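Quick illustration, no need to memorize.
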Amino acid sequence: MRVLCVGLNRRSALLLLAVAACPALPAWAQVQKFADVVAVKVAERQAGVFDFDVTVSSPYDTPERYADGFRVMSEDGRTVFGVRTLWHDHAGEQPFTRDLYGVKVPGEVGKLVVQARDKQFGWGGGTQTVTLPGR
């Protein structure tokens, strides 16, 4: 196969061909900076203490970049009631569910927001708002 690249030296032409031959990233991988919380189950363990099962999806999950935590916070984001740190990727398990037990929440709080954290970009992505049982 003979390639003609007018105005380019051999090195530039080879670089151009190499770049053109590389598969493009899917659209979601190009724009998604954060993991998403896709589901939350909450149960009251005892008065004012709750357990959370949180399902997170992070399609770029690799040892270098993955969802490295999630938090349970007030609707306005000013108060964080609990944080779960995730110490490794979950590339073979997407989406994945992890728990956060024993979260103390004052009686006047009826709803909470759960948000995931990306190892590279920090907090963000799709959140889930949950109503606490009995409130």
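Helices lie at 10-21, 27-31.
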